[in-house]
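Aggregate trends can hide what the representation actually does to any particular protein. The sequence in question and its structure tokens are set out directly beneath this paragraph.
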Amino acid sequence: MPAQRFNGFPPRGLTFLRGLEKRNDRAWFQARKSIYEDDLLGPMQALVAELSDRFMRKRIPIYGDVRRSIFRIYRDVRFTHDKRPYKTHMSAYLSPDGGRHTPGGLYIHIGPKGSFLSLAFYDLEKSLLERWRREMAEKPKEFQAVLRALARAGLGLIPADEEEDSLTRLPRGFAHMAETPLGDYFRLRHFLVHEDLTEKQVGSRLLVDRGVRFVERCRPLLVHGWRLAAAVLDTSEDRFFD
């Protein structure tokens, strides 16, 4: 159970992140660290814990851990020219096994330049991405059914032209799919559904309900992707399904 009840991210938390964008240095952060802990980290821990509990009660196999699931605000600057020490957003990822890299989970992003929820099959392993593309080519009606179900829920996959690391052309072996209704989906490296959040929603306890409903609306994509992941990873589908 959460150490505290999630009541939204206080406005002071987003104000802190705006300030961090302008003064991204250790002295500024350390003088205001209590704001980060009270108005950002604490609420995110409560949100992760409450969402995990709600998903468990609804038998949706997605959960998080307040230690593993929340991304650190401290940047790794060892291998980059950008030496700013802090990220200017808060984020967390809940997945079928609680891991940050397991495909088919809920990503939460809280930031002054825009907050959102994302259902993420992100940065897929080569074998899983190949299997996903092969399924689209061999069984196009199944994936089209997933897209129609998402559309009925008011959702859709982020298209290839809006993903900065999408392929510019279809991958080898799938060029014959270029003129089909699914042509552009073969250019994707990730399969993501995205829903923006307003500051009012971010600051409300109702964000818990919104997160649960979002995942429920994304269920057709989850079921499709988890089935492929179970086959590729040679694991029981029980890892993903009840």
